[in-house]
Specification:
CATH architecture of the largest domain: 3-Layer(aba) Sandwich
Strand content: 5-15%
Radius of gyration: 22 Å
Largest sheet: 7 strands, parallel
Low-confidence stretches: 1-10
CATH class of the largest domain: Alpha Beta
Bound molecules: 2-keto-D-gluconic acid
CATH topology of the largest domain: Rossmann fold
Distance between the termini: 27 Å
Structural class: alpha/beta
Shape: globular
Order of helices and strands: EHEHEHEHEHHEHEHEHEHEHEHEHH
Mean pLDDT: 95
Number of helices: 14
Number of domains: 2
Amino acid sequence: MTGPHSSTHAPRSPNRPAVLVARAVFPETIERLRRHFEVEDNPADHIFDKATLAAHLAGKAGAFTTGSERIDADVLAENPQLRVVANMAVGYNNIDVPACTARGVLATNTPDVLTETTADFGFALMMAAARRMAESERFLRRGEWTRWAYDMFTGSDVHGATLGILGMGRIGQAIARRGALGFGMRVVYHNRSRLAPEVEASLRARYLDKATLLREADHLVLVLPYSAQSHHAIGAAELALMKPTATLTNVARGGIVDDAALAAALRGKRIAAAALDVFEGEPQVHPDLLAVPNVVLTPHIASATVRTRRAMADLAADNLIAALTGERPPTPVNPEVLAAGGVLPPR
Ligand code: 8YV
């Protein structure tokens, strides 16, 4: 939706804004930002703890962040000069947006550019859980495959099954489309707000209350944003409502699922299988999840194609450059800051 729009001939001035690029990113992204800003980058890709992040932000008007940097009220208070936080992610639960807004700091994210890529991966994970791909591959690698058997790694069908989607935003809708149109699935969903009838019709999706969704889904996929409200949206009580043959896939955020409760449900065959790309406290993974066989575990890579990661970096850079050069950033999270005229330094 956006592309790099920088000039190679941007004027150099000692008064150029300073920005921090908090994690290693594409060298081309750094080069582009250097045409506009004094850039402190992090090629060694250190993960900054809170105090170190706050210290590196000293004197910076902008921050290029990822999900691993927490921009909270303390970090903002230590850096009153900060004007823009451009997050290279669609999710922004690492940023205290109300605190940003209160200080006139613009936050931006990278929606749309990762929708289809993330939906591909969510669908692949769901299929992997249903058809026991990771579990059977580990069995083969252990040298345990000595003969065919009629019931070896029998899973459950994806085609024609009921696909349940919790969180029907852009990525949820892209997964629904794959299920309905590609695999003949019956799509049911729950979301804070119900989709317009014509959107429901195009996705062949039926709205259900959350408990009914949990009861009806053969394959439940979580694609909702993380917030205090969605913390442990799937815990022991919710897992108890699911079919014993069901699978659960999470490509949203750690913390939406109670990982300890899920591990217990998988161990007890309360549900058949799960597939997780995100974890509470990642990159740590709950040891009980590592110990159960019927779960596919991937290291938060749903958006990880070369093209999409590049598009995310480009969009985060578009936002940072626009916000600090008097243009309207393409994807603000708190546009009320722009409306209040709060973000831009005097030109
Ligand atoms: C990112 C994501 O890889 O966009 C998001 O919200 O979770 C992933 O695509 C990760 O957050 C890095 O910033």
